[in-house]
Amino acid sequence: MEKPVAPPLLELWVRAGADGVRCGGCPVCQQIFMVLLVKCDAGVLNFNVKTTNPYKPVEQFAVLGLRHVPALVHDDMMFDEPEDIIEYLDNAFPEPDLSCDDVHAQKTVKDLFSKFCFYIKEVNKDPTQLELALKKLDSYLLESNTKFLCGDKLTHLDCSILPKLHNIRLAVEYFKHYKIPSGLSGVWRYLNAGYHCDVFTRSCPCDQEILLHWSDRPDTPNLSASEHKRLSKLAPTYTRSLPPDVLIE
């Protein structure tokens, strides 16, 4: 009896956290992590996760000639741009199919992350534009009445938006003292679906790393040295629940 052939082994490089070991708070790194988990759980590949600071890369990362994270290595194939990684994974491992051809869904979330970035970087001084983008998403989700953006199955669009939406929730509350309105039940229902999705929770960095990620970005509110140190030393916590005043069906 022949032994079953082991799935190919890939290597995912993501941004390192404050301790240089755990995963940092980069939402795009989590996006690729989620895609690989979906493929891995289907048995078509295996992968290891390694961390590095791209500005002071570990030797193994530098020797490969990689410059950005997330980065993917498969035998002699190497990619360090998210679009190239996703294209390669979809071509080399087409199942499960994560494609989303819903143009309405894509248009709905197109500006969400940029509105958040404008707000967190104080290009916009108030949350009006971000809230409009959140309300647009909320209306779409309530109308579609599906678990995820393109139906009840996870797609590439969810792997991109769920990490970003979770980052938005944590970062705007911590840095701007703004909370996603409790009345946006569609948005909260969608976040809750993420919090109950194994692929999301297994790939999600801790709250502290997400906050440190945004503090360390250019043009974002800087933490004091003492607060930065405090966050980096805290035991990891993971937000997975909704505020008590949020009601979802």
UniProtKB/TrEMBL annotation:
Coarse class of the protein's main subcellular location: membrane
Domain of life: Eukaryota
Top-level taxonomy: Eukaryota, Metazoa, Ecdysozoa, Nematoda, Enoplea
Topology within the bilayer: Single-pass membrane protein
Ranges annotated as spanning the membrane: none
Annotated GO MF terms: chloride channel activity
UniProt keyword Zinc, yes or no: no
Domain CLIC N-terminal: 8-93
Compartments, as annotated in UniProt: Membrane
Listed InterPro entries: CLIC_N, Glutathione-S-Trfase_C_sf, Thioredoxin-like_sf
Keywords tagged on the record: Membrane, Transmembrane, Transmembrane helix
Name of the featured protein: GST C 2 and GST N 3 domain containing protein
Keyword RNA-binding part of the UniProt annotation: no
Gene Ontology CC entries for this record: apical plasma membrane; cytoplasm
The family this protein is said to belong to: Belongs to the chloride channel CLIC family.
